[in-house]
Amino acid sequence: MNSMALRSSLNGILPINPKAPSVIIGGMPKSGTTAIAKLLASLAGLSASSDPMYQIDVGVGKGPRNALYRGDITLAEVWKRYRQCFNGELVKDPNFPFFIDELFALFPTTKQVFIVRDPRDNIRSILDRLSLNGQTQEIDHAYQSVTGTWRNVLEGYKPTLPGTGHLEKMAWRWRVCTENYLAQKNNMTLIQYEAFRQNKKSEIESLAHQLGLECKHDISGLIDVQYQPKGKHISDWESYFGPDSLNSINEIVGPYLGVFGYEH
């Protein structure tokens, strides 16, 4: 559906009670949410909705997202009004970790999945996606060319996040998402990106079993599909970010690295 048709369709939607999805998936941008959601939906034979907030941005503009993060409307109201964008048995969006409690209140029986990735590698992957690098002094021109949702991620906007500069703000995004997950960890299912990368098929099958989903289809032919542009492999974070920036990132995310086995 093109943006004009989507805009016309969305503008005609009236608030009604939304149908509860079976699975909700959230995580940082570039933490594997797209690949994991697509593979899990294919394995279990579920219809999927990917990035509904972005769909709304494209269809009607950023007004709903702005109002949501200002607190003028609730996620429940957005979901009801723009239910076409959330219309899947599996729904994934990188905004969901900011609304975990509200999602449980709206859909108390829906299984929620949180995906986590080493924050330094996660930040590096975002920078790769935007053709930026870890050395802040070298990216002024490229940074200015980043617009839309990705600019919000860099600037810690929608939601508003603490930190000075885009590296700290992305580190804070990871930290806030992680804290929100940890507050509800007993009610959620965790998947770590690194384990997924090691053995995609078995991790997706394990995730399906944890969620009580039937493995209906063979996904062997799908596991090597590149859903997002492939980034670089970095083993020396100090050389990549520089010592001062790496220290700033580690200071922000440090309290939670050990929770997931990520070394400081």
**Number of DSSP strand runs:** 5
Q: Helix segment count? A: 14
CATH-defined fold name = Rossmann fold
- Residue runs with pLDDT of under 50 for 5 or more positions: 1-9, 11-16
What is the averaged pLDDT score?
91
Helix content: 40-55%
- CATH superfamily caption: P-loop containing nucleotide triphosphate hydrolases
Largest sheet: 5 strands, parallel
User: How many individual domains?
Assistant: 1
Order of secondary-structure elements: HEHEHHHEHEHHHHEHHHH
Strand order of the largest sheet: 2-3-1-4-5
**Cα gyration radius (Å):** 18 Å
- Beginning-to-end CA distance, first to last residue: 45 Å
Note the quaternary state here.
single chain
CATH architecture type: 3-Layer(aba) Sandwich
Shape: globular
Strand-pairing-aware structural class = alpha/beta
Beta fraction: 5-15%
Structure summarized in a few sentences:
This protein has 264 residues and is of the alpha/beta class. The protein has 14 helices and five strands.
Overview of the molecule:
This protein has one domain (3-260): Rossmann fold. Helices cover 50% and strands 8% of the residues. It has helices spanning 3-11, 33-44, 52-60, 63-70, 75-81, 100-106, 119-129, 140-144, 148-155, 165-183, 193-198, 200-210, 237-241, 243-257; strands at 23-27, 48-50, 90-92, 111-116, 188-192. The chain has a five-stranded parallel beta sheet with strand order 2-3-1-4-5, with helices on both faces. α1 (3-11) crosses α3 (52-60), α2 packs across α12 and α10 runs parallel beside α14 (243-257). The protein is globular. The model is unreliable at 1-9 and 11-16 (pLDDT under 50).
